Structure formats: structure tokens, C-alpha cells
């Protein structure tokens, strides 16, 4: 079969841009994905569609879908077309949702084997993945937050150690270089190292730990940024560094530790041996992966004890280690709570846009607009300046930018205008990571140690999805899964198409205002002062139940 790439240009294959845009987003996640043959986009097993039959059925359906019809997709398989109305979503989806007691990794693997479910990641099955760029600003903001908190504002001359150069982890070397650091990334699969180098995300590769350390030390001495990919296993390299007394300044890991069967590679095994063992002895392979994770996390704790800044980068590595007996695993901070919560409390999060025509100049025009019109927003302007300089194009040209309530709407409406008056060469799709203020409950990543203890309450992403449907979004999706697929997470995704029409303007305004509005209210409800300030400043209509009397008490 021919390799799938996203269509470019302005020729429509569907009955309108809303359907065409979503079709291109599907093609784009496959174009950018890690293993197209298996429909795998990122995060070990995160798939774009159930199987190839489903993929072709989705493509065919989108080409025929009329305005006023809604396509329903269940775990990557199109189920049916429903008559709705022209302001209803084009697509609603639910991916990888299992009821609580049944939400175990074993049940998930069994159901996936039977072809009944897929792990959709956050942005794979929702067709919102834009390559490693999708998390790069988040990773950069984490590094800069660490720089401000611990290293007088700069990572120049600092040594960052991490692992995993997959779909998302591949953002780390470039984010590290953008933050000025000398970053060492350990990766077991040489093909992934090569892929990141070809994409312009990684500078140098080696299979020798000594050579890697020399490169890092030289760069540190000259306060020069460098990214080095080391072909090796983190479960071996981390303890080896600790034994030699080499303590990095910052340590994390972004291997697919959430998945013990298809993700994390145990030490001492080749990739071929892992493939074989996956079939012959899946339980043994998972046990070996967990033992290796325990070794790696024990070394991470050793680095922490010796002064390094150590954090979990959202792959559930601490949970796996704790299950293997590393009782101190949760002394390692989670990145959201440690570095990003003040942003999420104001619903500032990873917003993103894709130039559907394929013209990279459209992204440059939007960059310029942001630099001019958001000049008072330091996060956005600093980032756009850097992204413009460093971030290469992967698939359809795209950009990520952390924006908050009101700002996303302002930007999207301006872009819709630019599509209409021809300043942009074609329509633009907007979406965001599911890791956003209203849209994710993950008590070991997004909502760990919430101020009011509401870490595991998954009403919020469900409400978010329903509100976005009511707000006329073009695609709305609900996902579950996460760490080991054992019901660690519920999340919601949304995509909107700016095709220059008035109807698009209405959809963009309503959905984006409500999406971030609910995000601010989620954190306000948990008692974060920044959110309560945002409610006041932005005029969000919060209902303060504390102001009402308790009639039982009054009696
Ligand atoms: P991926 O499956 O595409 O890549 C994982 C990489 O880790 C692979 O290249 C694999 O070869 C490598 N690897 C596995 N075991 C290793 C070991 N022992 N030593 C060294 N390398 C090893 O996954 P991804 O898309 O890059 O995501 C990685 C993890 O990050 C996942 O758990 C995902 O859920 C999580 N994630 C976090 C965020 C966030 O916001 N922080 C965002 C997206 C994904």
C-alpha cells in the first residue's frame, strides 16, 4: 500500500471544508506517526483507527458526509451516520473507555486483541497529533520553569538527562536546546534516534556512554546547547551514571513506561527478543519491564538525593516503580503540579493550529500576527519567536502556542478573518492537547494533589466534551486509559475548522470561550486563587454556591 500523507492544496474531496479538514487531520496523524503500517501514531500503541478497514470506511464516509450529518466513531471504528443539524459536530468519538472495575491492562489487551477497542492516546485517535511539536512548548516551559526556580533563569551550562525519543519524547532534545541546555537522551531503538535527527529535533548520536559524556561536558564548559542521542537502555544507563558519581542537574524520562507490553523495553533484551517474548511470554515480559523501571526510578531517586531536579514527565513511571516495590517513587514530582499548574489554573494551555492547505507561509503569517497583536503576552511572544527559529515542519505545517481564556478565541477569530480575506492561503484547523485545564482527569499526571482533593473526579472532562458539543465544535472526543490502560485517565478533545465562514466564526467563538471558561471554573472550584482572579478579570459566569444559605443549618 502507498504511504499515506495528508492532502495539500485547496481541492476538496469532501462536500465541505469541515469534512475535508477532519479527513486531512486523520491523514496528517498517520503521515507524522511512528508506525503507519500498524496505524500507530505515538505513545506505544496510540492508534488513528481501529484497523485498515475502519480507516478506509472513515475516509469514504467523510467524502460522502453532508452538512447536518454527524459521524459516530467508537474506538477508531465508524459506527453510523446520524441526521443532526448544520451546527452539530461533524464527528463525535469515544476511544478506549472501559467501566471502572473492568478497566485493567489485561482486559484492554484482550479487547484490543479481539479488535474491539484501541488505545487512542490523547491525540492519536482524535487526529490532533502534529508530530513531536505537539508537546514541545510544554517541555520547553518546564525546562524554563526549572531554570527560573533553580538556576538563576538559565540552563546554559546545565546537564539534562532524559530517555525516550518516540513521538512525544522526541520533543525533548529540541526543547532542551531551545532552553540552552546540554541534553542527553537515552533511547533503545536506533531507528527512533535516526528519525529525530532526520526531523531536525536531535543533533548528534552515539552508542558510547563515554563519548556522550564527553560531548555533554564540552558543551557544558562552553555553555553551549547540545542534544545527544545515546543508543542504550535507560535502566542500564541511569544506574551506571549514578555509580560513577555523575549527577546531572535535571533528570526525567519519557519512555512509554505506561505500557509494559508494547512500550517500555527491559534491560538486556534486543527489540527482536522483545517482539518474540510479547507473543511467547507476555506476563514474563511485563514483569521484566517493571523490574527495569524499578531500577531506573531507584537511580532517579539517587540523583534526587544528590541534588538533581528530578521529575516525572507524564508517563506513569512512578506508578509502575511503586508497584514493583520502590516505596519512595512518589517523592519524585509530577511536572504538572511542580511547574505548570499556575498556567492551567488560568486555563493557559497547549492550543494548536494546522495550515490545511499545506502552505508553511500560513504559519509564518499567523506567527507574525501573534508577535504584533499579543505583544503584551510574554509566554506567547517568546515562544513564537523561538518556534519560528527552531521548530521544523512535520507533516501539515502546524504550530503550538500556550494561550488562555479569551486569547484563543481572539486568535482563532482573527485567523478565520485572514482565511476569508485571502491573507492565508487556505483554512486552518484548531485543536488543543487533551492535557488542558477542563479536559483531563489523571490523578498521577494532570490532577495530582489538587488543592481540594478532587484528583480522581472525572466529571470535568465529560462535562467538557458535552459542553463542546453544545458549543458547536466540529469534532469532540472522549478518551480513557493512560497508565497501563488501567483506567488512570479520562480526557476530552476538540477540533474546530476556521474556513473563513461566518458559521465557523460562531463555532470558534462559542467553543473556545466555553472550553477555557470551564477550565478556569474547574480550578476555581478547587480553590485556586489565580482562577478566582481570572473569573473576575474575564467576567466568567461562575455560580458561587457558598453565597447561598444552608437551609438545614438555618432551621
Ligand atoms: P513512543 O512509544 O512513541 O516512544 C517511546 C520511546 O521510548 C520509544 O522510542 C522506545 O524505544 C523508547 N524506550 C522504551 N523503553 C526504553 C528504555 N528502557 N530505555 C530507553 N528508551 C526506551 O511514546 P511517546 O509518544 O514518545 O510517549 C512517551 C510517554 O510520554 C508515554 O508514556 C506517553 O503517554 C507520555 N506522554 C506524556 C506527555 C506529557 O504531556 N508530558 C505527552 C504525551 C505523551
Provide a short characterization of the protein structure.
The chain has helices at residues 17-32, 52-64, 105-113, 136-150, 171-178, 190-199, 209-221, 234-243, 271-280, 282-305, 317-323, 335-344, 360-373, 378-390, 407-420, 459-470, 502-525, 529-538, 551-554; strands at residues 40-42, 46-47, 69-74, 77-83, 91-95, 159-163, 182-187, 204-206, 226-231, 250-251, 309-312, 333-334, 349-355, 398-403, 428-432, 440-441, 475-481, 489-498. It is α/β, with parallel strands linked by helices. The strands form three sheets. Strands 3, 4, 5, 13, 14, 15, 16, 17 and 18 form a nine-stranded mixed sheet that branches. It has a seven-stranded parallel sheet with strand order 8-9-7-6-10-11-12, with helices on both faces.
Ordered list of secondary-structure elements with their pairings:
Blueprint: H1 17-32, E1 40-42, E2 46-47, H2 52-64, E3 69-74, E4 77-83, E5 91-95, H3 105-113, H4 136-150, E6 159-163, H5 171-178, E7 182-187, H6 190-199, E8 204-206, H7 209-221, E9 226-231, H8 234-243, E10 250-251, H9 271-280, H10 282-305, E11 309-312, H11 317-323, E12 333-334, H12 335-344, E13 349-355, H13 360-373, H14 378-390, E14 398-403, H15 407-420, E15 428-432, E16 440-441, H16 459-470, E17 475-481, E18 489-498, H17 502-525, H18 529-538, H19 551-554
Parallel strand pairs: 3-5, 5-17, 6-7, 6-10, 7-9, 8-9, 10-11, 11-12
Antiparallel strand pairs: 1-2, 3-4, 13-14, 13-15, 15-18, 16-18, 17-18
Helix pairs in contact: 1-2, 4-5, 8-10, 9-10, 10-11, 13-14, 15-17, 16-17, 17-18
This protein binds nicotinamide-adenine-dinucleotide.
The site of nicotinamide-adenine-dinucleotide (NAD) has 34 residues, from strand 7 and helix 8.
Subcellular location: Cytoplasm
InterPro entries: Urocanase, Urocanase-like, Urocanase_C, Urocanase_central_sf, Urocanase_N, Urocanase_Rossmann-like, Urocanase_sf
Pathway: Amino-acid degradation; L-histidine degradation into L-glutamate; N-formimidoyl-L-glutamate from L-histidine: step 2/3
